[in-house]
Amino acid sequence: MSTKDFLEKDYYKALGVAKTAKPAEIKTAYRKLARKYHPDANKGDASAEERFKEISEAYSVLSDEKRRKEYDEARSLFGGGFRVPTGQRPGQGGFGGFDLGDIFNGGADGGGLGDLFGGVFNRGRTNTAQNRARRGTDVETETTLSFSDAIDGTTVALRLTGEGPCPTCHGTGAKAGTVPRMCPSCQGTGQSSRNLGSFGISEPCKECRGRGLVVDDPCPACTGSGRAMSSRTIQARIPAGVTDGARIKLAGKGAPGERGGPAGDLYVRVHVKPHPVFGRSGANLTVTVPVSFAELTLGAEVKVPSHRGAPVTVRIPPGTPNGRTFMVRGKGVRRKDGTTGNMLVTVEVMVPQDLTSKARTAIEDLREATAGQDPREELLARAKES
Ligand SMILES: [Zn+2]
Ligand SMILES: [Zn+2]
């Protein structure tokens, strides 16, 4: 507690009691308010926590006869309810004949009342990092989809493990039936400040590690940290057309924020199981179709499977080389813009392993009929060039 706190804060108002209130009245008022704003009863409510600190602070002063006297004296000397101007040059609008510039800055001689305030006024107080809303962290997870679900999009249940408020103590860190109290070292601000000449530096309070609250009886489940690992399951919508290895961002599905801050994002790494027949190339589906030498040579109409549709017929013109790819329009994957990719059909000659005698005779006849054509003639000739 500092002189500045004494000037800024109306502890009587905080507890809702008169300046003349008897110790018993103060105690009763404190108990009633402490119950109401108890962190246990106001899970995650930052304003209730602030109010709780305020009540605790007021009570710690007013319940102590000596400190209450000091407080009353400071208030009567400087005028109760006086608020230190913020963002305004001290010295403006003085009161009671005091020169505020002298009081707050130590004056030209650097002594007197300036020492009384001891640089307290350099402290950045209320909106410390601890009290500000904090965005939840981003969470990373992965999921494996079937080939079809990746094409169509699907909803998957994702089990997320992360740090959250301890369920035993509701994040207070205090053992059941006990309450954390305001950190006496930093008066609940979570910040301690040191003065280096005219600079005031602020750092997280060592006593409470920046929390502003200290726990006398730690919660056995979280050993007083107020945090615990927990897991939750969420339903996540995976959009249509994702590919293997894709990383999908689901905004706001990450860890919950603190003190009313927004939730983090969830990133889902998608693995797609291969399909026994089809492959993917962007929005195109690929399929390799076995054909016979005769079909490529003489031309044919071949039936080709389509993904979850009736087979389609692909016309192979006479003299088609092995490995040629045909495109079947509109039989691919639906894109975001509503258009659909194509199916790419690659023909591959199957060499028969078992031949009927009739087929063998026919192929032997073919060999005889084409004996004059050496398929490697051109290759051998070109190999000799240069
Ligand atoms: Zn706990
Ligand atoms: Zn502290």
Describe what this molecule looks like in 3D.
The chain is α+β, with helices and mostly antiparallel strands and 386 residues long. It is 26% helix and 25% strand. The protein is built from eleven helices and 15 strands. The strands form six sheets. The protein has a four-stranded mixed β-sheet. A hairpin with a 2-residue loop joins strand 10 (279-281) and strand 11. It is rod-shaped. The N and C termini lie far apart (95 Å). It binds zinc ion (2 copies).
Which key phrases capture this entry?
binds zinc ion, alpha+beta, rod-shaped, 15 strands, 3-stranded mixed β-sheet, 4-stranded mixed β-sheet, 26% helix, 11 helices, 386 residues
Mean pLDDT, to the nearest integer, reads: 80
**Cα radius of gyration in angstroms:** 39 Å
Number of helices: 11
Q: How many beta strands in the DSSP annotation?
A: 15
Which descriptor suits the 3D outline? rod-shaped
Question: Strands of the biggest beta sheet: in what spatial order?
Answer: 10-11-15-14
Low-confidence stretches: 80-131
% residues in beta strands: 15-25%
Q: List cofactors, ions and other ligands.
A: zinc ion
Could you state the order of secondary-structure elements as H and E? HHHHHHHEHEEEEEEEEEEHEEEEHH
What can be said about the biggest beta sheet? 4 strands, mixed
Helix content: 25-40%
Question: Helices and strands: which structural class?
Answer: alpha+beta
Question: Separation of termini?
Answer: 95 Å
